[in-house]
Specification:
The complex is a heterodimer. Chain A is an alpha+beta fold. Chain A contains 20 helices and 15 strands. The chains are: A alpha+beta, B mainly alpha.
Chain lengths: ~450, ~290
Amino acid sequence: MKRTVLILTLTLLALTSLFALGQGESHPSDVVTITWWHPNSGIAGKATETLIERFNTTIGKDQGIVVHGVYQGKANDVLTKTKAIMQSNTTTDLPDLVQLDGAAVLDVRDDRSLISMERLADEDGWDLSQILEAARLSVTYREQMIAMPFNSSTILLYYNKSAFDEAGITKPPRTLDELTETALHLKQTDAKGKVTRYGFANVPTTYELMCWLGQQNGLSYITDEENGHTGIPTRVLFDDNGTMVNFLTKWQALYDTGSLENLTSDLNGAFASGRVAMIVASTSNLTTIEQMVGSRFELGVAPFPMVDERATGGVNVGGGALWALDNKSGHQKETWQFIKFLTAPEQQLFWHIETGYFPINRDTYTMEAFTQHLKENPRAGVAIEQLLASNPRLQGIWVPSAYQIYYAFQSGILKMLEENRSAEETSRALAKEIDGYLSEFLRMQM
Amino acid sequence: MKQHYHSRIKPYLLISPALLLAVLFSYRPFILTLINSLHTISLSGKHLSFIGLENYRRLFTNPSFQASLSNTLRFTLFFVPTNIIICLSAALLTNRSGKLATLNQIFFFLPMAVGLSSSMMILKMMFNPSIGIINRLFGLNVQWFNNRHAAMALLVIAGVGLDIGLDFLLFSAALRNVPTDLLEVAQIEGANGRQTFRYLQGPLISSTLLFVVVTNIKDAMLISSPVMILTEGGPFRSTQTLVYQMYLDGFRSGNYAMGSTIATVVFLLTFSVLLLLMRLERRRVYYQ
């Protein structure tokens, strides 16, 4: 009998814990919780937490909004998780806000749960021209700004300034011809003729080619539909307009000097160890590279080299953006309040100083504190100047089978260098392979 | 009559749970994959139209697939013999009694206790060309992730590391089952180590050997997880295997039709190699 009573009491006690949990789920009705999935860790993760806390203790407190940031792993993991929910049709599990990479555009842009960022801004009477034009166009699809640029970056040339001084080179190369010459001067060999220091290391992928092909003749498109920004691309243009052949000819000349290493991984490590004197990498690598180089040599950064004198297009805006999603909670206005906060000049300045991602709000650029920061950090200034001088219509490509295309470029270019193929032949083969992926995707639309 | 009916229905009743699971999780997906490979499928997974063997035609003319196919076959060719020689040697060397021998066996068996992803992450750090311990320890300057041959070698090393635990255990158990009286006779007759293996141990463990070869070929043809973590198919697609490409096309690019087509090709390929091997079994394998 005693035992039965004991068991009964315990069962009842156990049950109450369930009720308690159930109560914890519901919030007081006057506070709205916004969930933000992001891939920011390390320095960027800390900056993200600070931004969220600033919002929650100021605007959020006044308007009854609490932002809840959730680190969901690397950019790719965030996409995988978001995509899984989108395909499962249980959209109530979606976050209100998700931060995704440029590579994710094709996966989310046509999804029913996506809320157009332009619409949210319009409903609030918020002027979109506050955003840097290049950044705004980088998330514009069919004349609509579908996301909010946030962790934006560009590509830069990093060089070993100590090695430059040693070789008597005073200026970083501006064009690929100059790069070839500089690289040759920087190359070092040991007694046996083995290269101990390469001038430059790279095997161009989509990332570099977006600029090297796009910047030619002021502005060139890699695929039709303006690199996929006005519709689904149907074919590549780089073979017909000759930009690929022009680039590959310069690249072959660089390789022929023996000062180019066909390196595809651990470029930062090779550069920091002094084995390679120049690399090109994202501005978001600046802090990492500075730390890796340390006091081993003096680090220099310069604008991304142009293919030739007529390639004046500059560089495109890469990186990630914030996407607002409809999870049937009806909290779109509150989500927009938070996006507006993140995009404000002060927050953009903080984000830039902490992480190195450049400010996307025009008004940040005229702030006293910003000019002061650039004076103290001339390297960050190089990236900003380069971006402001670029053609804002130079945009990244939105293509399906991004991984296959990435490797197609790499293997195609390597084949040209190692198996003595001509630039024309290589360009044609690349066009044929990539056109195949594009048509593959078109077949999936009908 | 009733009794008879019961005894006839009973076996079916007993296998039905297993059959249900097999149909649900093996046969049904398999047939769906086959059907998928004959259609075009939209991003959201809807069948658009029946196109016969068009997907196969496109696949076989795709340079990326040609690379995957040759990489997978090359990997199998390098991996299976390397793995068997290493595991069998380890088992032969530790095949003796005594406490220290047990310790040795534990060493070889231990890799099985480490999770695949974590061991691959550790391997990736160890083989990092600038800061990794392998290059430093052996005074090498090998660009493990940038040289096509080195990357393939690394993949073979990773594959052996993954399989050594189980394969070693199987060989060890098989060798221990060789009757000691036969071994003693061989010893008295003056057989040396090689002869003992060639005429006694070898034939007696041949059924285990066949099993290991078959599972190794299957593992090699389906290798993908180490590729995903270690090399991501690079450099220059030199380690892109069939199943990794299936993952890229099917999941990363959302092209289910092409993913299914690759899956079907992988199945047919693996199945035919294994069928060939099973034919061999009748002539070469002895069961005790």
